[in-house]
Model the fold of this input.
Amino acid sequence: QVQLVESGGGLVQAGGSLRLSCAASVSAFSSRRMGWFRQAPGKEREFVAAISFSGTVTYIPDSVKGRFTISRDNAKNAVYLQMSSLKSEDTAVYYCAAAAPYKPAANYNSVGHYDYWGQGTQVTVSS
Done:
């Protein structure tokens, strides 16, 4: 059974930092592109980061570039999202996602690229 469990969310002041973790119970973890998305109330789910199978390539959109970084530890079946210089507009539920093994990178920033999702962790940034 596939399970992705996010942790590390919480309440933080603007300008602060948080590190989100995603523990993955999924076959062939090291062969899956992993992603992070977020969803604020009343808005669509938004791509915030992705990382290649080995972790050598990361994809960060301009909206969070320079503030968010993604990493993974294939030995621990885990992926992380380090967030710094947080702003009130970063407030959202953050989701971890896993793509199919060896899936080509096309559309890595779309919800449909990923097969499995976690339940999400709330991040609230107070101004």
Observations:
- The mean pLDDT is 97.
